[in-house]
Design goal:
Distance between the termini: 34 Å
Number of strands: 11
Shape: elongated
């Protein structure tokens, strides 16, 4: 599935008298039907970066103080009910859902969906990340209690810290296009959300949470494969789990964390050895660039995995490349 990226959008792309109206349109495009309050504003500043894969959307947003309301009739005009997990990075916002109003600041997490009347008032320049997905996914996880899901998670709470860590770790790879399986990320996000909110000792190793944690760990490993010092201890520390629990995550997949690291490093090397544009790089250089520290160890591992030495594999792969595609 291909990722879809909206180019960065800013109000300064418009004249000063058009900026607030442009913000109204962008708000509706990204977050559903909202009506801005307070009338037009001179030189209103907002920035939006929106990336989507399938039905999963992540939105980075910065905006000046403003307000908006969402009424019941707005929901009936939309084709699909959506839910959002919003992480505030900086600034301050008042958010009202039904009869409850919360003041959100840095580190706070808000959960809302498009079926309910709501309003917000940004009172201090706001920066936030919102993860949006179909509400039907929440309903399938919590068919009888999805409406009672807690809507505000303060920054000092364990659920907020877990969700913030997950969102912050996943969003760079998502925006870069490195993470393109929207279905897997949606399930991981759901598992993290539901398990963290209902977290206690008896549920700390529930399947949804394990899946979310394993995805986060693999993302960390995949972005640090070139580090020769990558180790189970460092991986566990970076993901705020114990080494013992890290090993348990991979045991359930029938492998070990070190086996996973080696397998992924070998896959990157194999890709570069088969790439004719890499023909001038030595095999040792490619191996070391992906974290291997011994050419002998790399060659042995490569032959065990692919049935041919790196040299033979490269020679065979390059011999099948048309002459006009080989580097001159």
């Amino acid at each position: 599935m291909r990722a879809v990226v909206d180019t960065a959008w800013r109000t300064n792309m418009y004249g000063a008298t058009e900026q607030y109206e442009a913000w109204q349109r962008k708000l509706n495009d990204v977050y559903g039907a909202w009506t801005l309050t307070g009338g037009g504003k001179a030189e209103f500043h907002a920035e939006v970066q929106h990336h989507s894969v399938g039905n999963l959307h992540i939105v980075n947003c910065i905006c000046d103080p403003c307000g908006a309301v969402r009424r019941k009739e707005n929901a009936s005009s939309e084709r699909q009910d959506m839910m959002a997990i919003q992480l505030v990075l900086s600034g301050r916002e008042h958010f009202t859902i039904g009869s409850k109003t919360a003041t959100l600041g840095a580190g706070d997490v808000l959960i809302w969906n498009t079926t309910r009347p709501m309003s917000f008032a940004v009172v201090e320049r706001l920066k936030k990340i919102s993860v949006m997905m179909p509400l039907s996914r929440l309903r399938s996880w919590l068919p009888n209690s999805w409406q009672s899901l807690e809507s505000t998670l303060p920054h000092e709470s364990e659920p907020a810290r877990l969700l913030a860590s997950f969102i912050n770790s996943v969003s760079p790879g998502f925006f870069s296009g490195a993470l393109q399986n929207g279905e897997a990320l949606t399930e991981a996000m759901m598992g993290m959300l539901i398990s963290s909110i209902g977290m206690d000792e008896s549920r700390s190793e529930s399947s949804p949470l394990r899946a979310a944690q394993l995805l986060r760990v693999k993302h960390h490993i995949d972005t640090h494969l070139d580090d020769p010092e990558l180790s189970p201890g460092g991986i566990a520390t970076a993901n705020r789990i114990s080494v013992r629990y890290l090993h348990r995550l991979f045991e359930r997949e029938g492998t070990t964390v070190l086996q996973y690291v080696i397998r992924e490093r070998l896959a990157r090397c194999r890709r570069e050895l088969s790439n004719p544009t890499m023909a001038r790089r030595t095999i040792t250089d490619i191996a070391f660039s992906w974290g291997f520290q011994s050419s002998t160890h790399f060659s042995r591992r490569f032959k065990e995995a692919y049935g041919a030495s790196p040299y033979d594999f490269r020679r065979e792969a390059c011999s099948t490349v048309p002459t006009d595609r080989r580097p001159s």
